[in-house]
Write a structure and sequence with these properties.
The protein is α/β, with parallel strands linked by helices. The protein has ten helices and 14 strands. The strands form three sheets. A seven-stranded mixed beta sheet has the order 9-8-10-11-12-13-14, with helices on both faces. It has a five-stranded mixed beta sheet with strand order 2-1-3-5-4, with helices on both faces. A hairpin with a 4-residue loop joins β12 and β13 (271-275). It starts with a helix and ends in a 6-residue tail after the last strand.
Length: 295
């Protein structure tokens, strides 16, 4: 990360805005952390966005450089992009285009991440976040989960998802945990559909102590457990969010031995604002407000 961060401080990148288009893995982690530590604006690009949507995101955020493990797709987004080397310590290619400051939209002072979300309207919109806001969320998550003694977190959701990015790369290390970042083809959580055998195999293979699910994935695990699939004994904490979770589903999960706890967050607040946890749980609620937040 230090080598990658140093390269981002080069004069050619002074004032540049970056986007990150890549699969889950160590390359994403290096790129995301280097940008975070350098305080350069970073726009995570969801791989499931269409090329038209990605072009809109790049233009709305005024991106100059794309870091990617798929240069062919990146170059197809704008003929103005050209190959400009590799981000050190990672396999991410750098694609650069010239930009006009007069046409580039302004960002709030201190913006280090612009996360695009469909929200409740279905229309993607960018949320501007500061490093301080993201680190406050990460510190709260680490404080709340540290008593669990988690040492191995499995990243199942795409790292372009703000929740997984904050939890895996910022919060887990603060709590003393190692994040396992398998590619999405291994997790089975792809963009064309869910590969259930791959998902179950990934969880069994990596023996995580914590992971994050959306309700749809929890339903899959509950159904598998009801048919005889055995979750790893290592699991201590499964956070679930992204949509309301039926209390009946949480009860079924608990009865099957799945340590599931519901939380709530939103992109505008840097992700998580409330979370249930062992010893402080009320099913049917979003949990207690995290220490950094005020409601």
């Amino acid at each position: 990360v230090a080598r990658a961060r140093a390269s981002l401080a080069a004069p050619a990148d002074d004032g540049a805005r970056f986007a990150l288009l890549a699969d889950n893995g160590i390359d994403w982690a290096i790129g995301s952390l280097a940008l975070h530590e350098s305080r350069a604006p970073n726009v995570p690009l969801p791989q499931w966005f269409t090329n038209t949507q990605l072009r809109q995101v790049l233009d709305q955020a005024g991106v100059d450089v794309v870091l990617t493990d798929d240069p062919a797709r990146g170059l197809a987004l704008d003929p103005a992009f050209t190959l400009a080397g590799v981000l050190p310590a990672s396999g991410l290619m750098r694609l650069r285009r010239a930009s006009s400051d007069a046409r580039r939209p302004s960002l709030p002072r201190g913006t280090t991440k612009v996360t695009f979300t469909s929200g409740s309207t279905g229309t993607p919109k960018g949320v501007c976040l500061s490093a301080a806001a993201l680190e406050a969320v990460a510190a709260s998550l680490a404080e709340v989960t540290r008593p669990l003694g988690v040492r191995r977190h499995l990243s199942l959701l795409p790292l372009a998802t703000l929740l997984e990015d904050v939890a895996s790369l910022l919060a887990a290390p603060r709590a003393g945990a190692c994040s396992v970042l398998p590619p999405l083809r291994e997790t089975g959580v792809g963009f064309g559909g869910l590969d259930v055998p791959a998902l179950l195999g990934c969880i069994a293979r990596h023996q995580p102590e914590s992971m994050i699910l959306v309700p749809e994935l929890l339903r899959v695990l509950v159904a598998a457990a009801a048919r005889g699939w055995r979750a790893p004994d290592s699991l201590r904490f499964i956070a679930v969010g992204g949509a309301a979770v039926a209390a009946s589903l949480l009860e079924r999960a608990a009865a099957l031995g799945l340590p599931v706890y519901e939380g709530y967050g939103l992109s505008e607040c840097g992700s998580v604002v409330a979370l249930n946890a062992p010893g402080a749980e009320r099913r049917g609620s979003a949990g207690r407000v995290l220490p950094h937040a005020r409601v």
